[in-house]
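Hypothesis: this fold can be encoded by more than one sequence.
Test: take the structure tokens below, design a sequence, compare later.
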């Protein structure tokens, strides 16, 4: 079942994979009488990863943390499986927007990976990549770029540029380059990654759709607002068709379409999309999540642009109160909360 579940996740069939792993986990617990033996822990880990891909970050975090604690007791802190569970826990914390916690855990985890496993081991490189992602979210872009570039070079040299691990890192690296204003390089890498995903996985795979949405963000950054809007319309509809409109990736695509519409001169349309997406985000990831905050910030800008000043000011005040609790400090990824810059969401492929 593990092999079939992994294949289903790779194909973008996340609900099917989750059902399969859930059934296998229940069966294993019934037969073995314990949810914390190595076999059931492995199945529970796969179940949690399927939950991440379904956008159920809170539930997945609880599962990964529980598995990590069980493996610490059974195997000790320097076992490869324990390290993998800690990596999964830090990764999911980052997806939840809990950047400080994620960085602290991942910094320790990456160091232990380098000590316990080979420095070139795939799991070690993934741990280093997540550390770079955590650093990016905290606003430490030079460190993130240096580390991510080094990891990408190692992975592409070993695996080739079309390997899933290489594509995952390339998608993230392109958006980091965008953050740093290196737009030509960012576009080249994002466009190449999106095209490769489309060829390898098909245009209806969530990764192909998400990678194309990243291209739309860069188009908006360089001022090609009409092309960004067209891309946003396409990716929002496609992601919702594949995963449902309530999935965080679909909501993120909606945020980007709203921003593109606003900058293309349609604040009314942007406000309509943003308001609907904001309600979905509050239900899917909570009121304090960075995705929810970004949608609120964008909607406040659009309300102001359409003359609804009082509502816009109230929303801005609410965001100002929530920002310290949401982020725990001042983060580069969330400068829009105080600067008035249009928010964006970028798609991050998940390891399978």
């Amino acid at each position: 079942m593990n092999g079939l579940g992994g294949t289903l996740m790779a194909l973008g069939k996340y609900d099917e994979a989750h059902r399969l792993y859930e059934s296998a986990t229940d069966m294993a617990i019934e037969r073995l009488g314990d949810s914390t033996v190595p076999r059931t822990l492995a199945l529970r880990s796969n179940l949690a990863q399927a939950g991440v891909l379904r956008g159920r970050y809170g539930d997945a975090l609880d599962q990964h943390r529980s598995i990590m604690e069980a493996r610490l007791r059974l195997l000790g802190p320097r076992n490869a499986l324990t390290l993998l569970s800690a990596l999964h826990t830090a990764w999911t914390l980052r997806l939840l927007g809990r950047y400080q916690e994620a960085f602290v855990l991942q910094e320790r985890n990456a160091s232990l990976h380098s000590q316990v496993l080979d420095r070139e081991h795939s799991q070690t490189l993934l741990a280093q990549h997540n550390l770079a992602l955590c650093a990016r979210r905290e606003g430490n872009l030079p460190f993130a770029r240096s580390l991510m570039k080094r990891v990408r070079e190692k992975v592409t040299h070993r695996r080739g540029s079309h390997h899933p691990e290489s594509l995952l890192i390339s998608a993230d690296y392109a958006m980091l380059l965008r953050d740093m204003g290196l737009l030509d390089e960012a576009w080249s890498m994002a466009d190449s990654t999106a095209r490769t995903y489309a060829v390898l996985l098909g245009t209806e795979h969530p990764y192909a759709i998400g990678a194309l949405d990243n291209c739309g963000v860069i188009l908006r950054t360089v001022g090609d607002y009409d092309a960004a809007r067209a891309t946003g319309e396409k990716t929002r509809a496609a992601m919702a068709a594949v995963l449902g409109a309530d999935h965080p990736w679909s909501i993120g695509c909606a945020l980007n379409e709203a921003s593109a519409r606003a900058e293309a001169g349609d604040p009314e349309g942007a406000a309509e999309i943003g308001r609907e997406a904001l309600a979905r985000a509050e239900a899917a990831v909570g009121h304090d999540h960075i995705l929810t905050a970004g949608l609120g910030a964008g909607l406040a800008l659009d309300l102001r642009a359409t003359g609804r000043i009082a509502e816009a000011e109230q929303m801005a005040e609410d965001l100002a109160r929530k920002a310290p609790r949401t982020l725990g400090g001042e983060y580069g990824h969330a400068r829009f909360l105080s600067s008035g810059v249009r928010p964006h969401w970028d798609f991050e492929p998940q390891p399978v």
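DSSP finds 17 helices and no strands in the chain. Residues 195-352 form a domain with the Serine Threonine Protein Phosphatase 5, Tetratricopeptide repeat fold (CATH 1.25.40.10).
Hypothesis status: open.
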